[in-house]
Amino acid sequence: MSDANSTDQARRKPPQTKYDYSAGPPPVTINMSWCKACNICIALCPTQVFEPDRDGKPVLARQEYCTQCTLCWIHCPDLAITSNYK
Amino acid sequence: MAERERKLLQGNQACVVGAIYAGMRFYAGYPITPSTEVAEGCSRELPRIGGRFIQMEDEIGSIAAIIGASVSGKKAMTATSGPGYSLMVENIGYAYMTETPVVIVNVQRGGPSTGLPTKVSQSDTMQARWGTHGDYNAIAVAPSTVADTVVETIRAFNLAERFRTPVTILLDEVIAHSRSMVEIPQEGDFPIVDRIKPTKPAGRDFMPFEVTENFVSPMASYGDGYRFIVTGLTHDQHGFTTNRADETVVKLEKLRNKITRYEEEIYKQEARWTDDADIILVAYGSAARASLQAAQIAREAGVKVGVIQLYTIWPFPEKPLLDLCAKTKKVIVAELNMGQLVHEVRRVLPGDIDVHSVLRYDGEILTPLQVLEKVDEVM
Amino acid sequence: MATVVKQKSDVVLDYLRPGKKFPSVWCPGCGNGTVMSAIIRAVDKLGYSKDEVVMVSGIGCSSRMPIYLDFSALHTTHGRALAFATGVKFAQPHMKVIVVTGDGDALAIGGNHFIHACRRNIDITAVLINNNIYGMTGGQGSPTTPDAAFSTTTPYGNAEKHFDVCDLAKAAGATYVGRSTVYHAPQLEKQIATALEHRGFALVEAIANCHTYFGRLNRQGDAVAMLNMFKERSVTTAKAKEMTEEELKDKWVIGTLYESTEKSEFCEEYQKLVDRVAKGGR
Fold it and tell me: What is the nearest CA distance from A58 to chain C, expressed in angstroms?
């Protein structure tokens, strides 16, 4: 789990890498049937990992930027986000 | 056989004796005349036997605490008088809905409002039936002597546990504060009923509010591993809140049927000289004592008067009353209020039986003479 | 491929009541859910078994919580949660009793039970979710509605003064008082965990957003805007020490505000009394 400093760094310096992030498991799993589209995760994410879909629910738009900062799932009022961080 | 222990007890103290005999180990209450001696007795006796006594901040808290204790597996009681009972009715309704066995002692005093704190009354008769809002079937028992109080308190606990429901004991100031010699019951004298514990393992199969054959669900306690929900909202058999019409009907009919189908188990009354009576007196509590005395005096004077003394007030003993009054044409209901029980008696008895009332609501006890005057008037 | 293992984030799912349908009844973005997740993580961190936890609540939005969680649940009447909880705890002192309550539930209709539970110092952990308004009935003013704030029963601004929940609890005799907000969720979780481990009456005030009513009527925006406001307006206890009263006026001091182990816990004290009486003492 990352601390607050690393989230700031992540924002400043996007990771440059040869690895294909989309090949691995997504950093978080979103339970779309529990999500009520409150926008909290989208707004609080320091690295803008999520984009709202047509219904306002989050989709993983830039998952390679996820730093596992925990802000999204720790605030999710509907327990709809779980981290896949190992 | 060993000599039985006898003690000079007040009605309120007798109530404590009966409750502890029945297995009561948790008492929460708030001081109110004329019931306070019940709390005082419990505060003294319960710690001695490992029980718990707590004086709560008000009557609302008292009934809440005993419901909490009851779902935690303790037999629990509170005692109060009319004004306190009025505060309690909110959570008495909660106990009906959540099917929690608790015993509430109402030592009746004059009302409405704070009324006559140190005077006798039976004006909470209807409150014991209809006190809280909504549809439910109440159980209320009523002793008439100090010795009766022991027996009826034990019975109240047994009924509460048997039916998973709150039970009210309708005492009154006269019984509560009278003193007489009482035989202290020994082990084995009275049967003790305990709630049925669930046998099913925890999981989806276990339904805390299951509609069983006799409508009463086995009751787990917190900490038993069932982790069930108790809620005052209308709930399904799993305890989940619901507003579905079909599940609401199941719940409400369960509350009704568990009582109405087994009323015979709850009825208790004593009939004296009713077989050949021209006039039958119907009464409970201290009014029954005046009626018994009056009937005796009348009999000696050759007037055929009978008495039906009610120990169960709610559910109202319809069938027993009909049977016992089958051969009479006149009934007098004696009570310490402006006429409450009499409405029930009128409702139950056929139209060709004259139902009269002898009432007293000045805070004094009904006298045999007053009853006899009414007998004369009706004859 | 990397295998997905159980992490802190999905441990919350283990504590949800089987058979209960989700999502919850709460509005999108409601702080109650965030508090629920913090409670679960606190309980999990402390390693309590589900069987030893009883969750008691009254009436209101927050009070729906016990029905969702796989603990013993007592969902009671309005304001009476602490009185019921007192009965549960006193009857079974080994149980961990958590009361979830709201500002209207605990401080208006349940004010009497609240101060007396504090006074008794009975070992109950009360999580008071303060959203400054009655949410379930549609946004009426509550005892914590700030001065001049709008609600559906204070359409021209609140003329009444409000309670400071933590000051009230401390004055009434609670031996642990903490405050946090739903924005500071990790800290809230820590507060709840500390409160659960505290022997005695512990109060955690969780400041939460009711953007549906309070936010809308007071132009504080949506859930996100309110969370950001909580961030702006909260100061830690350490920082608060260096601030003047004037500077602290519109702030919430978050953290452990009061903790004491001097006062004896009620159930323990009563057990001592029982033991003394058993030996024939007075």
Answer: 13
Q: Where are the beta strands (DSSP E) in chain C?
A: 53-57, 72-75, 96-102, 124-130, 133-134, 140-141, 176-181, 202-207, 234-236, 252-259
Domains, chain A, ranges and CATH? 1-12+35-86 (3.30.70)
Q: What is the ipTM of this complex?
A: 0.96
CB contact under 8 A, C91 and B91: no
Which one, of C111, C202, C76, lies nearest residue B57 by Cα?
A: C111
Rounded to an integer, what is the distance from CA C71 to the centroid of its chain? 17
Cα dist from C190 to B10, B310, C18, C39, C42, whole Å: 54, 59, 26, 9, 7
- Which B residues, 206 through 235, put their C-beta within 8 Å of a C-beta on chain C? 222-233
What is the DSSP-derived secondary structure letter of residue C211? Answer: I
Q: From CA C55, how far away is CA C71, in angstroms rounded?
A: 6
CA A65 – CA A48 distance, rounded (Å)? 8
| Backbone phi and psi for residue B196, each to the nearest 5 degrees, phi listed first | -80, 130
Chain C residues with beta carbon closer than 8 angstroms to that of A82: 7, 9-10, 12-13
Instruction: Provide the 8-state DSSP code for C92.
Output: -
The backbone region for B317, taken as left when phi is positive above 0, alpha when psi lies in -120 to 50, beta otherwise, is beta
CA B357 to chain centroid: 23
Q: What is the DSSP string of B70-101?
A: HHTT-EEEEEE-HHHHHHHHHHHHHHHHHT--
CB < 8 Å to C67, chain B = 229, 231, 240-241
Q: CATH no. for residue C161?
A: 3.40.50.970
CB contacts of C49 in chain B (<8 Å) are none
Chain C residue with the nearest C-alpha to that of B220? C72
Show the DSSP H helices in C130-181 as ranges.
Answer: 165-172
CB–CB of C7 and A78 under 8 A?
no
Phi first, then psi: give them for residue C128, nearest 5 degrees: -100, 110
Q: Quote the pLDDT of residue C9.
A: 78
Token pair recorded at residue B320: 């027993």
Using the beta-carbon criterion (under 8 Å), do C80 and B228 form an inter-chain contact?
no
pLDDT, tens digit, 9 for 90 and up, residues B98-111 = 999 999 999 999 99
**Chain A residue numbers touching C36 (CB-CB < 8 A):** 77, 79
Sign of CA dihedral B68, B71, B73, B76: positive
Treating both helix axes as pointing N-terminal to C-terminal, what angle do C31-46 and C185-197 enclose, rounded to 10 degrees? Answer: 50
Taking the domain B270-378, which CATH number applies?
A: 3.40.50.920
Looking at residue C4, its amino acid is: V
Q: Contacts of residue A40 in chain C, CB cutoff 8 Å?
A: 29, 223-224, 227
Q: Which helix (H) or strand (E) holds C129?
A: strand C124-130
To which H or E segment does residue B193 belong?
none
Per CATH, the homologous superfamily of domain B6-183 is Thiamin diphosphate (ThDP)-binding fold, Pyr/PP domains (3.40.50.970)
Q: Do C37 and A70 touch (CB under 8 A)?
A: no
Q: C234 forms bridges with which residues in the sheet? A: C252
Contact B29, B69 (CB under 8 A): no
Tokens of C32: 């109650």
Cα end-to-end span (Å), chain B: 50
Rounded to an integer, what distance in angstroms lies between the CA atom of residue B350 and that of residue B342?
13
| C13 belongs to a structural domain | no
Q: Six-digit token pair at C139? A: 């946004």
Q: What is the pLDDT of residues B263-284, one digit of tens each?
A: 999 999 999 999 999 999 999 9
pLDDT digits (tens, 9 = 90+) for C130-159: 999 999 999 999 999 999 999 999 999 999
What Rg value do the Cα atoms of chain A yield, rounded?
Answer: 12
